[in-house]
Amino acid sequence: MESNGLDGGLKLPLVEDFYTIQGEGHHTGKPAYFIRLGGCDVGCRWCDAKFTWNPKMFPPVDVDEIVARAISYPAQAIVITGGEPLLYPLGYITDRLHEEGLQIFLETSGSHQPSGTFDWVCLSPKRQAPPLLEAYDMADELKVIVEKAEDLQWAEKCAENVRRECLLFLQPEWSKYEKVTPLIVDFVKENPRWNISVQTHKFMHIP
């Protein structure tokens, strides 16, 4: 067994798992079962999941147990998120979920080496811990959080690195929603390759 207790990915530091509606990005409105893993070294000051950052708070859980709970719900899509899920080997959990015929979506900053097999990858790059080149190549969706005007330029720089078919989204940082949304609207109207992502789950008051 590995010293970190993950046994090569047979166990993972689970924060929570729950059935809800995807609230952001391309799959907004889709029923999905979320698997949230603990641990993140990116450190966004506006993060709405800071409680996940310290992996020591979340003892490793058997992946087979996580999968058993996931398949007990009618969800056809699984979202693996964090924290930063690519801190961990994800090959076993993605293989097990695919064996059950489920689609698997990943949400990542792209700052760590990829593992696992996914049907959709949402890359949300962070300026303080830029994505690896491999992350840009695997992204199906680029979702950049915007809290100030300079982030629009960062978004354009990131967009230069993704595949042509990758979908582009700008998402207002929740605490600055009223301030930055007009900036994003104007930018997207002038640059129609981009789309706007809104955190609809927060408007609906669901997890």
Return the average pLDDT rounded to an integer: 93
The Rg value, from CA coordinates, equals 17 Å
In total, how many domains does the architecture comprise? 1
Structural class determined from secondary elements: alpha/beta
Specify the helix fraction band: 25-40%
Largest sheet: 9 strands, mixed
Mind telling me the CATH class? Answer: Alpha Beta
H/E series: EEEHEHEEHEHEHEH
Distance linking N and C termini: 34 Å
**What is the number of beta strands?**
9
CATH level-two architecture: Alpha-Beta Barrel
**SS field, number of helical segments:** 6
Residue stretches low in confidence (pLDDT < 50, at least 5 long) are none
Strand residues, percent: 15-25%
Strand order across the largest sheet: 3-1-2-4-5-6-7-8-9
Task: Give your account of this protein's structure.
This protein has 207 residues and is α/β, with parallel strands linked by helices. Helices cover 25% and strands 25% of the residues. It has helices spanning 63-70, 91-99, 133-138, 150-159, 177-190, 200-204, and strands spanning 11-21, 31-37, 60-62, 77-81, 103-108, 120-123, 141-146, 167-172, 194-196. The protein has a nine-stranded mixed β-sheet.
Report a brief summary of the structure.
The chain has 207 residues and is of the alpha/beta class.
